[in-house]
Amino acid sequence: MRTLLLALLIPLQIAASTLHLSLGANPSRINPLLATDSASGEISGWIFNGLVKFDKNGEIVGDLAESWNFESPVKLIFHLKKGVKWHDGRPFGADDVVFTFSLLKSSKIFTPYVSDFRYVESVRALDTFSVEVTYKEPYFKALAIWMMGILPKHLWVDVEDPMTSELNRKPVGTGPYRLKSMQNSGDVILEAYDDYFEHRPNIDTIHYHFMPDPTTSFLMLKAKKLDMGSLTPLQRERQLDPSFTEYYRIVQMQGRGYTYLGFNLTLPKFKDPRVRRALDMAIDKHELIRILFFSYGRVCHGPFMPGTFAYPKRIIESRYDPKSAKELLAQVGYGEEKPLEFTISTNANNTTRLYAAQIIQHQLAKIGVKVKIRVMEWQAFLNTVVTPRRFEVILLGWSLGLIPDAYALWHSDSDRLGGFNLVGYRNEKVDAMIERAEKLTDMRKVGEIYREMFNIIAADRPYIFLYIPDSITAVNRRITPIVPSIIGIMHNQIDWIKP
Predict the structure, then answer these.
(1) Buried b vs exposed e over 73-106: b needs ≥16 C-beta within 10 Å?
(2) Average pLDDT for the chain
(3) What is the pLDDT of residue 316?
């Protein structure tokens, strides 16, 4: 009886829980200002917070900021959350925000993210928990750019060389997890931060297993040594046994990138819109998706991400009609005696694109179009084909953002060496719409412009928009609650429970 009473008086010990994930590369700098590779960005995301973030519906909500308001089209006031602590216990405040911006703009660091802040005139602290941001002119991304992680001033202010600082390997943030250990070409272990301002994460540890070979990651999944992992359509369809799906839940979501055929619009053969339309009608995109992805994907209809504010309710769908395509080419003067000929160029390290090029080659041959395929190593492809615009047609892809910036891809000013308007697309109406949208802070009005722009670009066909592959993820069924959303499944990770 005495032993039983003592046992009841001893506090219940709850076993620590660990989330096992894989990491394909070593993080270089765990610093939101310098994290340009995917591994560094993923680890930084656990450790640092921005002033705002996306919620599960893709809407901007507060993160370190409690609220905000535009005092004018060029003046934004952030009201910061109180009681937020850095991982070393020091309080977070407005001075940290001001310092982070100053460091970003300084000559001490070199980062592509500085371009996002090109319209910011000044950032100043109004008091301990209020920050005023003044812009040079109205900017539609005025709020979204502040998703960038904030650094602690008290640790960084005296750093002489931020590019090589030890703090890039020993980060201190405000996020739900802090770095416990990181090995070169080895594992990364994060531990829950007890004083996280939302609440302490329910899962105590995140263990990233270093696996540069995707095959190894898949084998670890099959051995049930990982809690999550990506699957290819082939793996999903042909390489899983019943025990796998008993242990893992398969989460299938719309992907975050699209593949396209881009025309060199400076070439006479592609200046006639009837040619571009005919080629579009001659490509069976549903067949592409069936063959390449076992139907785990969707047809891409235009330049912006489905489900976002920029995607129109009514879209221009290009129908598969090889007979009409052949008739259109005949109108332009192409036929058996004078076939349309061109070369599709793509990169060698993406086998899916190579297979896509071969399928397209076969489909276009049915309407008498002769296609050659040129495949090159990635860097050589960029340096000798893409950048100098030495191509007829390119097969490439772009990622899809929740808040797209049409300027980089579709404005005439981006049709230059080093610009991303690779195909030389020029439309004065689209240029004017992009410029008008950039100067708005009301995202509803930006959305109206972008939705109209979507259909204009789709109708012009500077690209043949091909497909958006699905994202397929295996998740340990013991983990709850898993809530798929437009931004993925990790948005509510601090609420996850792993028994």
Answers:
(1) ebebebbbbeebebbeeeebbbebbbbbbebbee
(2) 94
(3) 82
Give the list of residues 6+ apart from residue 181 with CB closer than 8 angstroms, or none: 187, 188, 189
**β-strand partners of 244:** none
pLDDT(8) > 70 = no
Hey, what's the torsion of the CAs at 183, 185, 187, 188, to 10 degrees? 60
Type of residue numbered 319: R
- Which spans in 439-482 are helix H? 443-460
Residue 394 confidence (pLDDT) above 70? yes
Q: 193, 81 in Cβ contact below 8 A?
A: no
Question: What tokens appear for 279 in the block?
Answer: 């080629």
pLDDT tens for 116-153 read 899 999 999 999 999 999 999 999 999 999 999 999 99
pLDDT value at position 391?
97
pLDDT at residue 1 in the model: 42
What would the CATH number be for the domain defined by 257-470?
3.10.105.10
Nearest by Cα to 176 from 151, 149, 150, 195: 195
Token code pair at residue 101: 């911006």
- Long-range contact set of residues 311-314: C-beta below 8 Å, sequence gap at least 24: 311/451, 311/454, 312/451, 312/452, 312/454, 312/455, 313/451, 314/455
Architecture of domain 177-254+471-495 in this structure = 3-Layer(aba) Sandwich (3.40)
User: Is it the case that residue 28 has pLDDT exceeding 80?
Assistant: yes
Tokens of 220: 């670890």
Alpha-helical (H) ranges within 37-190 are: 38-47, 94-105, 153-156
| 3 state SS of 373 | strand
User: How far is the C-alpha of 105 from the C-alpha of 180, rounded, in Å?
Assistant: 30
Angle, CA 16 vertex, CA 14 and CA 21 arms, to 5°: 150
Q: What is the pLDDT of residue 325?
A: 97
Q: Exposed, middle or buried, 331 (CB in 10 Å: 0-12/13-18/19+)?
A: exposed
**β-pair partners for 341:** 370
Q: Could you tell me the residue ranges of all domains in the chain?
A: 30-168, 177-254+471-495, 257-470
Please choose, from the candidates 311, 314, 303, the residue with its C-alpha nearest in 3D space to the C-alpha of residue 258: 303
pLDDT computed for residue 15 by the predictor: 59
- pTM of the complete model: 0.86
Q: Identity (one letter) of the amino acid at 410?
A: W
Spatial neighbors of 79 by CB under 8 A, at least 6 apart, are 65, 66, 67, 68, 129, 130
Instruction: Express as a percent the part of the chain with pLDDT over 90.
Output: 86
Class of domain 30-168: alpha beta
Contact 393, 263 (CB under 8 A): yes
